Amino acid sequence: MKKVLAFDLDGTLAPSKSSLPPQVGKLLDQLLDYFDICVISGGKFGQFETQLLKGLKSDATKLSKLHLMPTCGTQYYKFNGSNWDQIYAENFTDDEKSKIIAALNEGIDMLGYRESKVYGEIIEDRGSQITFSALGQDIVTELGDEGIRLKEEWDPDSVKKNSIRDYVAKLIPEFEVRVGGGTSIDITKPGIDKAYGMQKLIDMLSITKEDILFFGDRLAEGGNDYPVKEFGIDTLEVSGWEHTSHRLETVYDAIK
Q1: Each residue's pLDDT tens digit, 3-19
Q2: Domain containing 39: what range?
Q3: Are 174 and 103 contained in the same domain?
Q4: 85 and 209 share one domain
Q5: Is the per-residue pLDDT at 78 higher than 80?
Q6: Are residues 85 and 203 in the same domain?
Q7: Which of 158, 188, 218 is the last residue of a domain?
Q8: pLDDT, position 245
Q9: Average pLDDT, whole number, for the chain?
Q10: Rounded CA separation 250/248 (Å)
Q11: Which of 9, 161, 176, 241 is most deeply buried (CB count within 10 A of its CB)?
Q12: Against a cut of 0.90, is the pTM above it?
């Protein structure tokens, strides 16, 4: 039996930048009786608070078994009984941030992918990760379902994201540049991706790869969940939170 269930957030546990659906929150709460649960995503911790934690009605004992890894595992938070402690953060220096932001701006301008209408910042400093969001960080907050639709339609074949990634990666080869979500590019220190986060979790919990089952919606090669699969952890690909909910019901029914 697995000891840890690990999840991507956007597109896996919840719609992009949207609240945790109640049925998913209920299932996670039930499964915390049997497993440690890890959520790893490109979002910053504040996004975890509004998107995940507000919809998770678990007591302190259960929350102590929840492991939060924002910004693709470059940060790790653990519940201390009353608050969330940051255990580590692989933060950039100011000079590194400036170099990354300059490279992103050059890439999107040279390729012609700077949108005239955006919602919030398009380049966000998340401390340990710099993220480019083509339509702005706040599009779903401001437009709701319409924002989700616009994000899905912006680059359905990933041509734009891959072009930006390839261009920017050549400018800053000393950093990790990868496609994030449907409209985003994430940049971290080299060698840091979701597999890095999983290795940190393994070390902290004194477990093995075989003890983890990972759920993600971008497990194909090139997707931001793929490093977990390549790392050798058992994975389940899902097509959205509804699919995840169905999978979790199956897991829960098998063990309760």
Answers
A1: 999 999 999 999 988 89
A2: 4-90+192-255
A3: yes
A4: yes
A5: yes
A6: yes
A7: 188
A8: 97
A9: 94
A10: 5
A11: 9
A12: no
Structural domain ending residue among the three candidates 159, 188, 217: 188
pLDDT tens-digit profile of 178-213?
998 889 999 999 988 899 999 999 999 999 999 999
Domain count, the chain: 2
- CA separation for the pair 28, 30 (Å, rounded): 5
Tokens of 159: 């041509």
- Tokens matching residue 21: 């659906």
184 lies in the same domain as 102? yes
